[in-house]
């Protein structure tokens, strides 16, 4: 049976992509390697492995929390993850618009700026694939 | 055609129940009546009226943001709304467990305490109906 | 010349009333007396003593920050202070309504609940005086 | 009669300047255009249109909340708006100094850094005009 | 070898006391039992089991974060834990006073109110023991 | 006897280094000089001058709060200060790992990114000295 740590890495790779996880692991050094291990085990290897919510819903819920907490960097990663988990651009936008009356306009504007960067990259990549 | 204000009250009644909205409106006085109007128009009459997300997803996303912002009072209202919008207790719990590695254990413990109160009332009411 | 500590207590008494400050000081014990001293000196004896803003504006600005930070207890104290500093109920309400699109509806609803308690006490006291 | 949306754009142009609003609208794309509409209607077209506070006070109160929420980008915009609404540099500084004991030194230092950039641009532009 | 879950419960019992953990576990129901398990495993069974900081330092650092996040309920638990981990009342007060210029006076006042309740109970219990 | 302002500058220089404080003072202009004075007096000249906690503990506690509040800029300064106050890299990492279950993974990842920059500079400088 897989350990939480192994299961965590597996799920993180499925959601965030191999290049993303490879980069996170390769960039880590003595100082922050234990953080990568802790996040892999206690975030990806626990709640993302539960079956009470579909992954696409987890992605939308994660985006909502990251917008509320104004964590732009992590938000970008999870917008990418949401697209990989099958969420449409319209759903992601729907969550960020839904946030406006709850978290306020300033936090929402910040979230939109970060999300838009990722969406634009994604749409360019799709166009390039189509050509 | 309905105004945003009218549409907002209609949706709020569907999601939060007539008794809840009646209480909010009847309890409002000169001081906070303009707040009730503003919330009805700019929260319920706008984003809740969009069709880019199903209402059950809006409920789960709202619960996630309220947990992240530690707004216990509003969280209780929206756990009730989530149950009315067809979310199961398992899905609501799934969102709050998913929040643990993102918002931290202390904020999650607070959210669970508030949500549990509403879930217990709801389950008692269901049992009473069944008898 | 007065020390910051002395000047702080003087201003705090003017803004928050003698009974309020007496209660804060009398209720303090060995554990939190140093906090009372620190707050008197580094909040009331510094920025409240500057002349770049009228006191009524300071009150409104303080209420806005406390609403944004969801500090209900302190908000109540400063709504009382605002009324003593000559702010009208309409201005206080104006600030809290202005906050809605910035800090979001949930934080604003919490702020209104706290402010309303103080406004109601204040209006009762005024009526009693008038009779 | 103007709609909230129309009134919102009008007020936003008065407070934030035509070039600022033109840029915001021209930069918006399919993804974030609905956010621009929502903000125009539910922030600028509602509370900024109320007459219970002078615009200069609204600006100061907004700056206070944005400092408390650490929204640097929006803070810069509203420091510009405050200057256009007739607030002096001394009043803006007064609000940010007043914030120190309430929101803490770290958030205040961040707010000062952002505000200073805008103030410096503004003073350069004034000098250029004077020459 | 003990699992993280087992080690977590062991450490939590050492820090928070048996009655505290028994109460937490006995009070949990179907809804929040998975939260108790998750917290035991991913908070108590991981970072509290590291040997890079003495437990007393962990307690002080935890109190500082809970004060910054305004989590009063959890703060009370960890003030109790700090006393059990050998921190003196003076050190706990030292941390909360140190917080004032960083998190601001309002959040600090809230933290002091919560901590004081626990300190008073503790000092009463000590006096009763001494008699 | 030294004033709080003088004592504050002295302590700030000991903790943050002369070049750091010189830079902060030299960079300040008419707009933000009063902030520098206020911070020197009400943060460095008060709580950092108390003897209820060793300076190394103050550093760790400060880092914990800055991570919780997501103040990256200030966090970097205080990681430098912690190293000057005699904290080891292992202790600083211990605090940031300890934060993960409390403040959540996204805020912790942000704190690690900022801290790592400072640690790397510090280790390079040490190596250069050794050569």
TrEMBL record, chains A, B, C, D, E, F:
Q: Which domain of life is it from?
A: Bacteria
Domain named Carboxymuconolactone decarboxylase-like: residues = 35-117
Output one GO MF annotation: 4-carboxymuconolactone decarboxylase activity
**Protein name as annotated:** 4-carboxymuconolactone decarboxylase
Alphabetically sorted, this entry's keywords are: Lyase
Query: What EC number(s) does the entry state?
Result: 4.1.1.44
């Amino acid at each position: 049976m897989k350990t939480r740590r192994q299961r965590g890495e597996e799920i993180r790779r499925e959601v965030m992509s191999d290049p993303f996880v490879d980069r996170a692991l390769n960039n880590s050094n003595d100082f922050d390697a234990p953080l990568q291990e802790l996040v892999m085990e206690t975030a990806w290897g626990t709640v993302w492995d539960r079956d009470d919510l579909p992954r696409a819903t987890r992605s939308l819920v994660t985006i909502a929390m990251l917008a509320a907490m104004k964590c732009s960097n992590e938000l970008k990663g999870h917008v990418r993850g949401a697209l990989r988990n099958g969420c449409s651009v319209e759903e992601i936008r729907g969550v960020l618009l839904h946030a406006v009356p709850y978290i306020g306009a300033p936090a929402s504007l910040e979230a939109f700026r970060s999300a838009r960067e990722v969406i634009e990259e994604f749409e360019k990549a799709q166009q390039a694939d189509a050509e």
